[in-house]
Amino acid sequence: MVAAKVLKEFVTVLEPLGFVRTHRTHLVNRQHILCVTTGGNIIMRDASVAEISRRMKSGVMKVLKNAA
Fold first, then answer.
1. Containing structural domain, residue 54
2. Residue 24 is assigned to a structural domain of this protein
3. Angstrom distance (rounded) from CA 19 to CA 1
4. Domain count of the chain?
5. pLDDT value of residue 67
6. d(CA 31, CA 28)
7. CA 4 and chain centroid, separation
C-alpha cells in the first residue's frame, strides 16, 4: 500500500485497533509481536524486527504489559 500521509496520522486511526508506535519509523500490531528482546527490539511473527526508541521505551513497555 502506498500512502502520502505522515505516520502520525496513521497512529491516530490505528492505535484504538491495537497498534503501538515503537519508534518514529515503526508502528506495529500488538497481535503480531512474538517477543521483546533485552536490546530494545521487537521480533514479529514473520521474523521482522522493529526498534523501540529510548524515548518511547517506557511507554511502549507499559502498553505491552497492559495488553498481556
1. 7-59
2. yes
3. 17
4. 1
5. 72
6. 9
7. 20
DSSP label of 38? T
Q: Shortest CA distance to 26 belongs to which of 52, 3, 2, 45?
A: 52
Instruction: Match 500488538 to its residue by C-alpha cell.
Output: 30
Contact between residue 50 and residue 28 where contact means Cβ atoms under 8 Å apart = yes
Closest CA to 26 of 4, 46, 1, 44: 44
Tens of pLDDT along the chain (68 residues) come to: 777 889 999 999 999 999 999 999 999 999 999 999 999 899 999 999 999 999 999 999 999 998 76
Helical H segments across the chain, by residue range: 7-14, 57-67
Strands of the chain (E only): list them.
19-23, 26-29, 33-36, 41-44, 49-51
pTM (2 d.p.): 0.82
